[in-house]
């Protein structure tokens, strides 16, 4: 794959466009990607390396030539352990509304795409079909890089072809079942509690007592399934909330304390470590982008 197409990985995992986004990565996949869900479809194509991937309580082993289809609302994360290794992969995000809009020009059978294949995950096409899918993904990366006046139209046509081939493939092959993830149900209760109470003073000991688990077992299994220790995950949730508030124009001090940080210097260090810039630098950047967006809208009117 052409290195000119390579993207830098973004832990935020937010879709900005309303149709599709495609990324090519060739790096040491981050091991601290936490369990998360999207409101869009994700097609994950592994080109090199071998990795486990956790989706909805099932664990799948991916190898080159295999793909994963993750539906909106499904909890998932890569499960990477041991010595860091480089992975080459293409990730395609597709807005469900965009897929539905294509149904006017696609075969009738694809109208049910969003419902029929919820729960399909590991896809192992034959060599010829895989090559077709790979070439279509490569075409999307090419047009993304070219970005001329015709690229948007060609990309939509290419996504249409990709969906038709996926529909054919999934209609003709049995589902591949992954392995059950140990203690998934128990850990999800802790995970959901942490999501609702991350602004509070939460300790691992308190969580272990609340959910009747051994502290060490809770820490080990939580990290195995979610991707971070309970304390690390709570800190990440606080930072994500702070990131959102700063984009909305909330002051640094108010943001830090409303998100559960009792010490501004600790908030500053954690924010810079995760996002690569300080909270004030991010605020200035957000304001600049907002002003630029308003100027564009004013010019258009």
Description:
This protein has two domains: 3-179, Jelly Rolls, CATH 2.60.120; 184-288, Arc Repressor Mutant, subunit A (Orthogonal Bundle), CATH 1.10.10.60. The protein has helices at 96-102, 113-116, 127-146, 151-172, 184-197, 204-210, 215-226, 230-247, 252-258, 264-275, 279-300, and strands at 20-28, 41-48, 51-55, 58-62, 67-70, 76-79, 86-94, 122-123, 179-180. It starts with 19 loop residues before the first strand and ends with a helix. The protein has 301 residues and is α+β, with helices and mostly antiparallel strands. The chain is globular and about 55 Å long. Strand 3 and strand 4 (58-62) form a beta hairpin. A five-stranded antiparallel β-sheet has the order 1-7-2-5-8. Helix content is 48%, strand content 16%. The protein contains eleven helices and nine strands. The longest helix is centred in the middle third of the chain and has 22 residues, at 151-172.
